[in-house]
Amino acid sequence: MHSTVISRKSFIAGAAGLAAAGAASLTAANAARATESAEPTWDHEVDFLVVGSGTAAFGALAATEAEGATVMIIEKHPTMFGGTSATSGAGFWIPGSPCQAEAGVEDSLEDAAAYMKALAAGRAEDAPIDAFVANAAPWLAQAAEATGAEFHIGGAQDYYDGNPGFLAYARNSKLSGTAHDLWEKTREVLEERGVQILMGCALTRLMTDENGAVVGVEAEADGTPVRIKASAVLLGTGGFDHDPQMMAESIDHPVYLTNATEANTGDGHRAAARIGAKLALMDTYWGTPFFYPADPATFDASAATQFSATSCDWNGRRGYPNAIVVNAAGKRFGDESTAYAPFVRPYSNFSTGSMGMDNLLGYFICDADFMKSNRLPGITDENPEPNEWFAQADTLEELAGKLGIDAEGLAAEVERFNGFAEAGVDEDFHRGEKESGIEIFAKKVDRPELANPVLGPIATPPFYGALYLDGTCGTSGGVKINEYAQAIDVDNQVIEGLYACGNCTASISGGGYMGGGATLAPGCVMGYIAARHALGIA
User: Fold this and answer.
1) Full 3-state SS string of 70-133
2) Going from the N-terminus, what domains does the chain have, and what CATH number goes with each?
């Protein structure tokens, strides 16, 4: 194939004829009727259209394996190919991977499927899980061969100890390089294979025939409508983190921060819902805690979800010695050495005592000993002191006053925690006892003086504190899909011609975060499955 990448200018120019014909001035009612017309006017026709360039880009890559197939990608963001995926940690949750085999780690697809199904707890169908597990390693092999990317066993592990099929180590296949590099290389390969790419082109609606099958899309580039006919459409528009109304209507508590790209405004969700697609798991998200990236005194708890690319605390700080996380009453509410996804879940716990969610807000507390071996956000060699995000005080009482925490409650909790540290046993949350926590934190601590490597007392002034809030790296509810990544309607029937993958879909794991790479891998693999099914690739 020859490269036929379309520039934004030339693409829009191609749509000018449509505008000249008067189609661009359609009223809303006329636009709706156009869906039912015998044959709308199309600006472009392709076999496989991908809407979004995140994990769905690998659906486009798989589609290029079909002999003679024409493939196009449209991306809402004007410059950012790959979306949130390209800013990720570049880990992929892949059971039965070549990386595992090379490392001598035994795994089974049956165990991986059992683990996912236990995590889903009935909130997802078995068939998509089985399809993902069966196709994960083949997808990784194809992606590596096409892009030249190298993968190795990553440091991340399964996050839910006790689930059947739990594996403490090695289901995370980590890219040797950055996610940005992988998506840029993928874009290069796509262009070489003749995939048409238009940046700055946003989906406005899905177009259907008289039988309800999707036959293309209407999009908008620089205010100009563009119609693209396609034999199959793969939605990969990401989540709805930056649609305040959708967030408020779907999730029953505030989600204060996200590192998902600001282009994630639920476009695919709305377009699919308009044609009868079933939306599910809209109350779920890929949770992770964030430090508030500003002076705590400026925090507005009523504001919409705020974007931050720098303040996310995956597994970087809270589970190390000499630090705890508490609520406004000064009470801990979880095992800080738990992985990020399970750790944020207690934020939304409702208390019948207070008739509210007691763990909103959260606060990170540490002492001077923590600072000897760990860096808080914003601290660099050039700026070694805690920044404006953090309150600092010589006593815990003073620190509590600066942060708005109950001083007596904090003092009592720290005294209790320090007793656990001395004994080496966390009687409340069993910090340092779980396999996942040992892999994440304990193995990285070289403190032989501690009875438990992750239980260091909070006793050495000065003391530091910051807002430590519920956040997300993407919502995980959306279009329900089957084992072929086909979209399902409200009557549980397939919507012909429409496929979906990634964060615009209802998570195939029921919103449960399996382990490191649990967002990227299902998105990429289901996109791969979609392309192969739509184009009949054996």
Assistant:
1) CEEEEECCCCCCCHHHHHCCCEEECCCCHHHHHHCCCCCHHHHHHHHHHHHCCCCCHHHHHHHH
2) 8-83+196-235 (3.50.50.60), 287-472 (3.90.700.10)
